[in-house]
Amino acid sequence: MSETNAPTPAQKTALAPDVRRLDERAARAWTERMAVRPLGDGRYAVDSQSGATYVVDLTERSCTCPDNQIRHNRCKHIRRVGIEITTRRVPAPGKRAASCDACGIETFVPEDDDEPHLCAACRLENGDVVRDREADDRLVVVRVTPERADEVLIEGVGETVADYPTNADYPADDLVAEVVYLSDLTRSASPRRYSFPLSRLERVDDAEIVDRDLREQVPAATQE
Fold first, then answer.
1. For residue range 10-30, what is the model confidence (pLDDT) as tens digits?
2. Are the C-beta atoms of 150 and 163 separated by less than 8 Å?
3. Which partner for 198 in 1, 109, 159, 175 could form a disulfide, CB atoms 3.0-4.6 Å apart?
4. 220 and 126 in contact (C-beta within 8 Å)?
């Protein structure tokens, strides 16, 4: 659906270039045994093949190893951190590893993000157009809440989202998404919001459904 899915085994395996064409430090960055651990704030611990542990700070483009500190070279440890980030073994600066709150797979999320942790396949954002799997209606996402379907009461009904009859086939612990009907956007500047289990919604190609002018209005029309 719309940070990149969590890495698959294939994505986690770095496809090394022809190391014979690389300079010595680049070749060692690709071939030596190293373990990279994120420390937060753009810093990474690198356990070197020699047994020593160094700290790489990508913000400062520095490493605590002698090659960087004394000779001021872009050392193999800095290069290795770059490789690990590119191949999605470790999160980039500003990100951290987390389990997707919807499907449980590992993904990377902003370090200071208080919103639900969602992978690319499960993430829906304000203004996204989705299809109701049950009624085939088109809806526009306002937000995905951190509340579960069995915790959210439907206003005027007295039942939770999970207890609502048409939601019986969806998990009771599903996250709840607030949406508005696409058709309501054309009739009201403040359309009524509805609560749906997240897995009941399927992203669709809004370019085929919403004309250009309306798509430009969707985020503003659905903001809190």
1. 444 455 677 788 899 999 999
2. yes
3. 175
4. no
